[in-house]
Amino acid sequence: MVRRGALSDFVDDLQVQGRLTFTREEAMAALGVSADAMKLAAWRLAKRGRLVSPRRGFYVIVPLEYRKDGAPPLDRWLPDLLRFHGAKELGREVVDGVVVVRVDRRVRGVEIGALRMSFVGLPARK
Length: 126
Fold this sequence. Notes:
Blueprint: H1 6-16, E1 21-23, H2 24-31, H3 35-47, E2 51-55, E3 58-61, H4 78-85, E4 89-95, E5 98-103, E6 110-112, E7 115-120
């Protein structure tokens, strides 16, 4: 079981360092907890609007000034999400309110806060 506030303290420490993302494995190692305990602690922080998880195992810290938006600006966390997937951004545009990101590999779309994103991978080679 995660000590009450342990994940919150971990998140605060990352934010003080200027980081707004982390992985489940990183937090579990730092806190010395099981996957189930980590999941429960993250769920509690997400319920309070402190965290969002656009991908299983990847978390975005939501600073107070971005709570009403549901997430910090895209440029603050998208590079880390793509690195988490081993993908590289090739370009970006907004189409009908959806952010379309061209990437070098297949990545599923994301909804985070009011933001909707889709990823378009390179076409398969013949």
